Amino acid sequence: MNKVNILSIVFAGICAFSACTDDKDPVINDLKDSEGNNISFILNAPNNSSYTLMPENASSIIDIFTCEQPDYGFAAGVTYTVQVCEGGTEFEKFESLPTTGSGEKVLIKTFELNDAMNNLGMVNPTVAYNVDFRLKAFINDSVPELYSNTVNMAITPYSGARTQVYFVGDIFDNGWNNNDPSMRIFADDDVNNMLFTYTGFVKAGSAFKIIQTPGDWGIQWGYDSDGALSNDGGSGNIEGFTQDGYYTITLDLAGNKYSIEPYTGATTEYKQISLIGDFNDWGGDLDLQQASYDKHIWIGEKIEIPSDGGLKLRADHDWAVSFGGSNSLWNDKQGQFAKFDGGDNVKVSAGTYFIKFNDLTKHIILLAE
């Protein structure tokens, strides 16, 4: 055999080996047992057949799904994901809950299930929806995914995303302009319980109302009697600021209640509040603007966060004073309303944001625009 033929054979062998190594990992289990039957995978019946989800229990565990692990024929570390769909739709359209499980157990968090139902159009808080559940078992890309049997429950959701409301009045510099999105009111978390709060400087004799949509008086809350609100459109202005100073305004718009109390906490002033995080490699500061009506309110409009990652707020471009997350809902999913009264970095997705921060109470609003 001449040298040319020998080299050709060697080259062909190398190419064949290279082609084999470029293939994806082979499937090592086709989900059949030794008799050719599908591997069994049983999702056990839930603890209850029906639940009513409540916003005050949003971060609670509503149920724990358990199952029998499939017999893969080898020791396997399985990750289980809960999938949800409207009853009877055969998972043509479904949502996967973010919390996964192992050890044949998955926790069902109230707010995750509620979010999934809202995303699937099951949003009416007066309706008990027929909801189907199944588990997906996953090991790795070499083993096909396996799905359990379906279990069914009747689930009543609560109203989804937190309603946003706005101040209108002469307690701030915008007068009675009812079309100012920066007048959004703070809340402790994303639970849509219609509870809101604001602490800040207010001039004596000022008054306000609350509206739901900027530029529209159609839905509004105003004074009915001391401590009581009315939303019938004929309400009065809310007053109660007897002298210049710091006050805490608490609003229960579902119960039509309010309170105004003097604020007696610390009022440490900062020259600047800024964002810092993965989006700028923790190497710079993206400054917020101090509100003209209050030295402790900081606002950013159309703030660009170019990449996913963690962020914090800090004062005066220094780490001596910084603000991070401790809100459990924010840690589990990206929130919109929270208190940055902890030390953890807060995960935020890339996007354009409206940001409003109160350095007295650590309340923050961070909304994708």
TrEMBL record:
Origin species: Parabacteroides distasonis
Domain SusE outer membrane protein: 22-136
Cited Pfam families: SusE
One of the record's GO molecular function terms: starch binding
Protein name from the UniProt record: SusE domain-containing protein
Domain of life: Bacteria
PROSITE patterns membership: PROKAR_LIPOPROTEIN
Gene Ontology cellular-component annotations: outer membrane
